[in-house]
């Protein structure tokens, strides 16, 4: 029997966290991605929002009807509980739900009804994950954190002056995954010892830890020459992008001697590369040397690409060990069999929006991806949650809705 | 008592995965980051490499003595077991270690001695995580996956022709975290039900799932106009970078009406912005409208920044709610109190390299970050692992080393 789980549901292959219940008071990317990932792994995740939605409920991109595609894809598989965040009666209900679930994940700041000490006084084995912008509690988002983290100065064309931001909110994504990992680990610990955990996770520290893990901090502190801007090259190995005759572009990476040998043979440059190698006193079996002399190598390889169409290039590369990929747009990717024929993507009928390929978890479990479930609308599950988890009667639910403390949706009426 | 744990060690606050043992047969970023993160959470992680190291053992950046700073920062806190991967006797030892641990994480491909079916036949509750490049087993690395994922075409200056790669291997980082989450979830499940899991995790699917989760796939499949290249702006809200008079640059994000109001007041442009708003028939309380008219707003705000030094700008911004950050280089970050005074970073004496700030986990547990431990050298723990986990005698260990089947290090001799 699950000693700390909230329900009788047992974990299974594609639902390893079945039985775990999480209350999520969140907005934007990191905390919602955490909750969505836990839901995909079988947890019962209740996202609690103000009536009408939090600040992310209508974030772009929107459909023609004003529904947020952003929100729908970051909140799949959750239940939605909507309450008036200014109403002390709502605070009490939310507190009761957190105590009942035993796990809360939030990026909301400064709300007394989410305070760890107050909640843990009632439920000592609480698992409480607080996502912050910065460790000192000041605000930050992915795009400001990235500016502090050093990457914009080394991203983009070599001859560019000025920073290049990531469009991908990579820190939000990593933060959401660190948060989910924190919950899974803390739940495992509680299962064995019965203890809860207070976890604090600043987005900025996610970025700084990664900068450290990739060696940039040590490199600087040891007084070594740092890594500068190298365009689309890959530091320390051979990587380059090439244009085909019809404008198609390819990213090529030769990480190993075998990749590199295949590349010189494919492009008919084996003799020329050997001659250059000898003349420079270099050894291109060493990836550092390939990196050092990449400009020369780029020049030797480019003509082969430039005199063939993208289709010809791709077909030829596919027959080799060379790591390669054709640059694609999001639209091309969305139509590609690697999405439409990919078992990780499932055709989802998302209410209020339409049907499209929605992502399960990138990992499969015993060969199967967890079933993808739609995102809820604001307040879809308020009534059910109140009845099932807090034992309220239908009349009590109606009274709360009439008072404006919560929002329930008509579909929930018996 | 831990029913499925490998040791008697009980989980604790900063070691929620204590008692869990993981064998890691890995190289590069994703799988090593997975193992390192699990080790940071208290798991006993044994990284198994060829004698002399795998392909990443000497990856740049290197110290003047040829030690890899890259490897040291991606393999903190692990134990190192070194064996001859061509020797069937080594395969048997590795298999025995995996069976003993009950968990293996690998990005190695095509090695029979890592095959799930063979291992699970011996230990049916095995947790086996296979990281791949692509789901079909073909090779891919972060830089090629990113080309397929659409981001290079929308990253970088608006007037640029051609793709802009990420320097940050964001997909490797996310993959490593999804892998760690998979292990933690599977261990939780096994603790309750006794069942193991076979997990497959393609790097490409990590990227494609994220592209889906951020709404790009749905947007394209629903026939909506996609998101194009917008330089350092932030789609759907107000974000921009500005230069101060001394060349310092700042990233500014006004996500909420409050942020935006603070921004117009700070820059003395409240009246001008209101006049523009009225003339355009816009409503800048709506972040989508701020995004739409960002060029005008950028032009109104820029002079305030351009007539002040970076220090003046920073001091003024700090007194507001505006989300902001000064762009820094890695070197500036490494010297900044947000690293040197950050409890997440700990001064680590890394053998063979030196002393520097090394990152613990970005999350703290009950106010504490797990203690950071150095990365091992190739084969540092081979002897201990053989004796402690497989019950070999010292003579048997010596014989294996003499035969070249394993590498042991002199420090291990009693």
Give me the Rg of chain A, rounded. Answer: 26 Å
What is the CATH level 1 assignment of the largest domain in chain A? Alpha Beta
The overall pLDDT of chain A, averaged over residues, is 96
Terminus-to-terminus distance of chain A: 33 Å
Q: What is the domain total for the residues of chain A?
A: 2
User: How many helical elements of chain A?
Assistant: 17
Largest sheet strand order of chain A: 6-5-4-1-2-3-13
Tell me the total number of β-strands of chain A: 13
Oligomer: homodimer
**Any idea what the shape of chain A is?**
elongated
CATH topology label of the largest domain in chain A = Rossmann fold
CATH architecture of the largest domain in chain A: 3-Layer(aba) Sandwich
Largest interface: A-B, 156 and 156 residues
Task: Quickly describe the structure.
By secondary structure, the first copy, chain A, is an alpha/beta fold. The interface between A and B is large, with 156 and 156 residues.
What do you see in this structure?
The structure is a homodimer of 414-residue chains. Chain A contains 17 helices and 13 strands. With 414 residues, chain A is of the alpha/beta class. Chain A has two domains: 6-213 and 342-413, Crotonobetainyl-coa:carnitine coa-transferase, domain 1 (Rossmann fold), CATH 3.40.50.10540; 238-334, formyl-coa transferase, domain 3 (2-Layer Sandwich), CATH 3.30.1540. In chain A, the strands form three sheets. A seven-stranded mixed sheet of chain A has the order 6-5-4-1-2-3-13, with helices on both faces. The mean pLDDT of chain A is 96. The interface between A and B is large, with 156 and 156 residues. β12 (364-365) of chain A pairs antiparallel with β6 of chain B, so a sheet runs across the interface.
